[in-house]
Design goal:
It contains 13 helices and 9 strands. By secondary structure, it is α/β, with parallel strands linked by helices. The chain is globular. The structure holds N-carbamoyl-L-aspartate (NCD).
Amino acid sequence: MRTLNEHEPMSPTATPVRRQLATPPVVASPFPFHPGSLLSVGDLSLDEVSHLLARATALENEDPLDRNRILAKRRVALLFYESSTRTRTSFELAAKALGADTTLVSNLSSSIEKGETLKDTGLTLRSLGAEAIILRHNSSGAPWLLEDATRLPVLNAGDGMHEHPTQALLDLRTILTHSQGRETPLNSRTLAGFTVAIVGDILHSRVARSNMLLLPRLGARVLLCGPKELLPDVAAQTCPGVVIERDFDAVLQQSQAVIMLRIQAERLAGLQLDLEAYKANYQLTGPRLSAHAPEALVLHPGPIIRGMEITAGVADGPQSAILEQVRNGVAIRMAVLERALKPVQGVRS
Ligand code: NCD
């Protein structure tokens, strides 16, 4: 059912590719209104990213009973318009680990099905006492609209084909854990000399976009790899430190970490792909990995489609950090929730 009105963000399929892929121009933005919000990974300074990584580690190591007092009885709403396993569960477990009460509102079991707008759902949650909202939405820009409407801290858990800031933070934590001598505090040289490949369906991936916004700020080189249908030439044009290289083997030879992406079938909107050709050119297989990148770290935000973008042997193999990424999701989301709900000084209205 259609639930957006003309004041709400464009649907992902209606958004021009160029607008989706280009880095937005630098203009003074009133967003985020709330200092606890996390809408775009680009809103965080490197000091803030360092602080979040440090807090993730501290919270992970804290005694569970002490940790439980940090957000005791604070109310956190999870508002999910798209399905999710890792992001939703880890946000929920993170909130509960800090003592918060959580409630899940999903588009399939709420008044959203009856046509309620995002704005009205947000205002309803606020009236029910929600102090922060974690939002996953199929429209790019939806978290900005929700923050504008509610003035609550909003945490972007993935908006359309746009951004997924906590995924980029947990990917960074995973990469840093495996990179000797590259610990926090972060600076613009932390990942100097380090190349991260992002491979597959870049066009539809909010994970790719948030990583492209974060990793080059730490000095990393980002190589994008995929077929033209899923990686238009425009993708790298306005992102400093990001280049397109279509030869997967050549990409692997240069990379210390490779982030594999699923083909987002739900967003293809009629696009036809030759899957056999795709697998021949872009599937990460055991022989390909051992021939070209025997030391590289293999990441994937999940859900993985075994036998499509990655073989089962690689997903379960010694170079895979996929389940470590999942674990890092809880720690990062604890830090992000603590930031969202800690005492607020001066909220812009
Ligand atoms: C991704 C997402 O939803 O953006 N998964 C995730 O959050 N861990 C990637 C995907 O759906 O392929």
